[in-house]
Amino acid sequence: MAFTTGLIILVLGIVAGGYGTIVGAGGGFIFVPALLIILNMDPVVAASSGLFIVLINALSGVTGYAIKRKINYKIGLLTASGAIPGSLIGVWILQRFSSQVFYLIFATILTLLGIYLFFKNVLPCSDKYVQNQPGKRESFPSIKWLPLFGVFLGVLSSYMGIGGGWLLVPVLIYVFRLSPHQSAATSIFSLAIYTSIGVAAQLFYNNIDWLTVLWGGAGVILGSQIGVILSQKLPGKLIVQMLSFLLIIIGVRLYFQ
User: Fold this and answer.
1) Cα–Cα distance for residue pair 61/227, rounded to 1 Å
2) What gap in Å lies between CA 178 and CA 185, rounded to an integer?
3) Tens of pLDDT, residues 127-152
4) What is the mean predicted confidence (pLDDT) over 177-195?
5) Distance between CA atoms of residues 199 and 202, nearest Å
6) Distance CA 83, CA 77 (A)
7) φ and ψ at 87, to 5 degrees?
8) What's the pTM value of the predicted model, to 2 decimals?
């Protein structure tokens, strides 16, 4: 790998790490499309290496969120319990269906989710979210469904190589009524658990580009710490807007890849 290519990946890692930590998506939804579009990397290698980057980003960001006590550990663990087997299924599917199918599914999911978030983004301020107050009846669905949702999340995470925070965060905000900041932190925590399983499976198939992980990993470690700091200064509505705009842009671009 040329030195200039490594610098490009480093910068991508910083941007993906910072942005991904702010919105709780792990950065893979920036990093993997960039590998496909800018570096023209093989989809399987891009997804595998991108998933490793998501893991590094999550492990780096979760520490900062834990210190700031933003993580809902119960929801994060329940989601991860289903996402772990889902991650293994996703890796298996990736070995058999990639290339043009990969691009089409990837682009469609990102674009539709981005459009949904854009039009749904009428968030009240964060203190109006249900925060499990004693004596107050919870209005959100039972969390017993989270492991089942986690299976689906894990499949998408490993198949696309982008983690699952881009889908988990909106669900936690709009379905389970967590604040955007708590949703992002809980998503990063859950990602740190189940993406490790997906990465282990990718290591078994030897699909990871280690130079990409080296340069990109250094970038996301720095970027994730910047993201934790910035996330405390940004309003929840802006965080969702940032996520929706980027999903639409990347999704549309991938249709022409």
Assistant:
1) 8
2) 11
3) 455 454 434 444 556 788 899 999 99
4) 89
5) 5
6) 10
7) -65, -40
8) 0.75
